[in-house]
Design goal:
Helices cover 0% and strands 34% of the residues. Strands 1-7-5-6 form a four-stranded mixed sheet, with no helix packed on it. Strands 2-3-4 form a three-stranded antiparallel sheet, with no helix packed on it. The protein has a single domain, classed as SH3 type barrels (Roll). The chain is built from no helices and seven strands.
């Protein structure tokens, strides 16, 4: 992301066909070519960084949960033993520090 366009680590992007080129969205990421201050940039935004997708016209869309990415078996930390009741530990209610946050406007 070009410096100076995000506010508090977040940015709202217009990804309409008239605003971007080569838009590609899948389960892994959103990528496209867009202009910032008249200068073309290629952007690659991991899906985990997308907070919401909504229509500008009516505000309808989806908001995504902030959760850590799913890891394949064997990729995570070693098991430290039984966790007790089998429930995952609470996240502390806060947002992870340093995690990028973006909104995609369609």
């Amino acid at each position: 992301m070009p410096p100076g366009y995000a506010s508090d680590g977040q940015i709202v992007l217009n990804v309409s066909p008239s605003a971007v080129r080569h838009l590609h969205m899948d389960n892994e990421a959103v990528s496209f070519e867009g202009r910032f201050g008249g200068v073309a940039h290629s952007l690659y935004i991991p899906s985990a960084a997308v907070m919401a997708i909504y229509a500008r016209e009516n505000g309808q869309g989806m908001v995504f949960d902030l959760e850590s990415p799913v890891m394949d078996e064997g990729d995570g930390p070693e098991d430290d033993g039984p966790s007790g009741d089998g429930a995952p530990p609470s996240s502390g209610g806060g947002r992870p520090a340093g995690r990028p946050s973006l909104k995609v406007v369609k």
